[in-house]
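Quick one: Glycosyltransferase 87 family protein from Micromonospora fulviviridis, structure tokens please.
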Amino acid sequence: MSTESTAGIDKNGSDRQLQLGASPAARRPGAVVDHPSRSDGLVRGAAELIGGPLGDHAVALDRPAGREGRFWTAARIVLALVCLTLALHWVQKSPCQDGAWQNNVQYTRMCYTDVLALYYAEGLNEGKVPYADHPVEYPVLTGYFMGAIGLPVHALGVDNPGINQGQWFYNLNALVLSALAVATVAVILSLRRRRPWDAALFALSPALVLTATVNWDLLAVGLAAFGLLAWARTRLDLAGVLLAGLAGVLLGLGGAAKMWPLFILGPILVLAIRAGRILPAVVSVGAAALTVVLVNLPVAIPYPESWGRFFDLNTTRPIDWGTLWYIGRYLDGRISPSAPGDLGPFEWLNVHISALNWLSYLLFGLACLGVAALALLAPRRPRLAQLAFLVVAAFLIFSKVWSQQFVLWLLPLAVLARPRWGAFLAWQVAEVCYFAAFYGELLGAATTRPVFPEGVFVLAASLRLMTVAVLCGFVIRDILRPERDAVRDTYADDPDGGVLDGAEDAPWYQRWRHRPAAVDRPAEPVTA
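--- reply ---
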């Protein structure tokens, strides 16, 4: 039996929603806005400090989403909060904006940013064109972005030698990246109209305060968010297929800026196979692949060595700070001391980088296979954001590089996958601890005087890794026990799923998972 679904509610109404196991809130026509002070345990407990959760007669409490009838709606409050967060980030980075990093101020004030440092390191201050005049260590769309802002700033500086080019470059980048962060919050609000306060997890994130403009990661975050929004609008018609292509283009552009948005295509394809709606997924994957090729060709053909700089750097790079492998190196010799001159297993991998690369790829590949198996074996088809979060988190956990700003990759996916405040805040506390410990490590390396014992930094890195792993565990639990999924307590199925939202599993899948029982046959008579 086929069904048509619109915004998670099909033409058969509550019967279909009951079949999907939707909560009473999700089954109500014109479902009301979710209020964390009622639905989230941590927020409900904290609300007791200010008088308890919102009461039954609170203004506009039970009005349908989008009909609150007042100016300061939840969405506008969240958008204002993210603007405040980004302003605080700009203030936190302000000691470094002039580029005069004397006495290690970039470490003592924890305000270092690649954006300012690479304006000079990549030759933008001399008018060098990325890739054409100087190899760039990032994927091409990030290089294009750097040049699109950096070259006009350099031209302006030539005519106005009194301006601080580096500071202008940083502030223009901060303005555009902040706009992308605000746009990401707007996308989350659009995807969660009945749960607008979920977006506050992103808007108030301490990690956003500390790392928003450390690098250009928000470029990929914004493109990936718009790609998810386009996919969420896909339907089984020509316009829906075109939106699937647009989703692929946006995810491809994100992958051309930072590789990780391409990982979202895997969950889209696996879920589409389970639902029997493969065409939109294939269109998205094809559009993403074509986009990546077209964006890279203008650099890869005329400047192959500059284009290959990103791949060469990542292939030859040893174990980086704060990774699983770095923690292992620290433990080498402390758990099972070896003879003088012998290398522990992790130190051996650091020397044999090729083996480290293959082992990292293998573990990530196995994790992806595990996520695919989870998608196919779960009692109910998982939501797209859940699988996307697991894949990107697995990449970070097993990667040999886990820079401080990579937390931005997970932020929107974590909000969409599991909007629960308790575990999210624990993870954010761990990220703040790692941020502080990391700058202590940088300062110690710059001054050759350790700020604290190495074990403190390793402990902070371990806490970060463990909290991400715990979040993965909670997401997996919600997949295996969908009745505990906060999003499905509000929506009938998957508000991010697009063409997958409300779809039944494919006939082949239903036959595979629900094989008819064997028919008992009468026993053959025994003959002498």
